[in-house]
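Journal club prep — side note

Before the paper discussion, L.F. wants everyone to see what a predicted structure for a comparable chain looks like in token form. Sequence:
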Amino acid sequence: MYRYVLRERGRPDALAVAASMRQGRVLALDEGLAIEAAEIGANHALPLADSIIYASALSHDATLWTQDKDFEGLEGVAYKPKRCTR
């Protein structure tokens, strides 16, 4: 994420993103979560990384806020389309 924001918005915004990320929590990808992610990926045609993200959010009753169209329409997801800035 840092690299993307650095490239698209510049160093000050990238540093703000990094600071926000440090306030989060690192979750373990254990066997149960991996199996759940695999099932979610198969059922919703999600790429592997997306299915892990979604399974993690579901396992913690968290709302997944995203601009990634792959998640649009899924339960527990707050999807907001990207705005074209160019």
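L.F.'s comment for the group: The chain is about 55% helix and 5% strand. Keep this in mind when we get to the figures.
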